[in-house]
Design brief:
Helices cover 36% and strands 28% of the residues. By secondary structure, it is an alpha/beta fold. It has one domain: P-loop containing nucleotide triphosphate hydrolases (Rossmann fold, 3-Layer(aba) Sandwich), CATH 3.40.50.300. It is built from eight helices and twelve strands.
C-alpha cells in the first residue's frame, strides 16, 4: 500500500519543471524530500494534489494502486491524500472549528455528531498545545506563521489521511513553534500513514527523523538514502551534489 509517483513530468505555461520524478512512499514510512529553492519540490506537492496550474504531461500518480493522475483535488482528498500548504489560505468569515467540521464531514457518509466532533477536536488541540479560543477565530486571519502551521497539522490530525504531504511546514517557524509542530507530526506517525516532508532545511529533521531522504535538483531526484544523507547535506550544502550531477553528465 503506497503513494507512488512514476516518471512524472510536469509543466506550467512557461516551461517544464519536473523531468521524470520517481518516488514511492509506503504506509508507515516517513520520507524527506529536500532541495534548494526552485528545484521543483513545491511543484511536485501541487501536482500530487491536482493543482490545475500544473500540467502533468507524462507519468502517473497512484494511491494504493488507484490512478489519481487525472483526479480532481477533492477526489484525491477523499481517497486519503492530504497536503499541508507552505502558504495556507486565509478564509475570512469561516471559523477554524466550522472549517474542520466541514472537512471531516466531507469524508464521511453521515455527518459527525456535535459531541463526538467536540471531543475529537479537544483531544487534538491539547496534543498541539492550541488554546481553546483558537478554533473560534477565522481560519488563518491574522495568524502568525506558527499558528498557520499548527492549524495545518490540526487538520491532519482531524482528517487522519492515509498519506500526508507537508510542503515546507517548517518555513517561518521559530524554535518553539518548530518543536510544537514537529511533536504534532510525530504524533501522526503510524503504521497506517505515510508522510512526505518537503523542506530545504535540515532543522525539522532534527525533530522528525525520516527513514528515507531524497534530494531534488532542477526537477529531478538526484540522490536517495537514509537520514545520514541529510547530515551530509548539512555539512556540504547543495553545491557538492550539483558538481556530482554535472560531472556525471559530462
Amino acid at each position: 500500500m503506497s503513494l507512488e509517483i512514476q516518471n512524472l513530468h510536469v509543466r506550467t505555461e512557461e516551461r517544464e519543471i519536473l523531468h521524470g520524478v520517481d518516488l514511492v512512499v509506503g504506509r508507515g514510512e516517513t520520507h524527506a524530500l529536500m532541495g534548494p529553492n526552485g528545484s521543483g519540490k513545491s511543484t511536485l506537492a501541487n501536482s500530487l494534489m491536482g493543482n490545475p496550474n500544473y500540467e502533468v504531461t507524462e507519468g502517473r500518480i497512484l494511491l494504493d494502486g488507484d490512478d489519481l493522475t487525472e483526479a480532481d483535488p477533492d477526489e484525491r482528498a477523499r481517497a486519503g491524500l492530504f497536503m499541508a500548504f507552505q502558504y495556507p489560505a486565509t478564509i475570512p468569515g469561516v471559523s477554524v472549528a466550522n472549517f474542520l467540521r466541514m472537512a471531516v464531514n466531507a469524508g464521511r457518509d453521515e455527518p459527525i455528531k456535535v459531541k463526538e466532533f467536540g471531543a475529537l477536536l479537544k483531544e487534538h488541540m491539547e496534543l498541539l498545545r492550541i488554546s481553546r479560543d483558537f478554533t473560534s477565530r477565522y481560519l488563518n486571519e491574522g495568524f502568525s506563521g506558527g499558528e498557520k502551521k499548527r492549524a495545518e497539522i490540526l487538520q491532519l490530525a482531524m482528517l487522519q489521511p492515509a498519506f500526508a504531504v507537508l510542503d515546507e511546514t517548517d518555513s517561518g517557524l521559530d524554535i518553539d513553534a518548530l518543536r510544537i509542530v514537529s511533536d504534532g507530526i510525530n504524533a501522526m506517525r503510524s503504521e497506517e500513514r505515510g508522510l512526505l516532508i518537503i523542506t530545504h532545511y535540515t532543522r525539522i529533521l532534527d525533530y522528525v527523523n525520516p527513514e528515507f531522504v531524497h534530494i531534488m535538483l532542477d526537477g529531478r531526484i538526484v540522490r536517495e538514502g537514509g537520514p545520514e544523507l541529510a547530515s551530509e547535506l548539512e555539512d556540504k550544502g547543495y553545491d557538492f551534489l550539483r558538481e556530482e550531477v554535472e560531472a556525471g553528465a559530462s
